[in-house]
Amino acid sequence: MKINNAQKKFLRQSAHHLKPVVWAGQQGITKALIKEIEEVLERHELIKVKCRLGEREERDAGIKKICEDTGAELVQRIGNIVTLYKKNSEKPVIKLP
Prior knowledge:
CATH class: Alpha Beta
Radius of gyration: 13 Å
Structural class: alpha+beta
CATH superfamily: YhbY-like
CATH architecture: 2-Layer Sandwich
CATH topology: Translation Initiation Factor IF3
Number of domains: 1
Number of strands: 4
């Protein structure tokens, strides 16, 4: 599902007060990390992930892999903090404009 710019703006505003709920660190992007992100996205739809994966190129690759493996949309990235969105197909929590 692609989200447009107006929807991204709405999601950025909604995520402003959120704290990171998942940390990607020294272990890199593992199956367990992907599973945890998928579970949290299923419940909340909009989350922040803190990526401590090394240099910029490594972080970019890690963020891309997370988005591809989970099917989530990248809403925003500020430094090490990434905001992700994935609509819950059964019980949507967030209603996009």
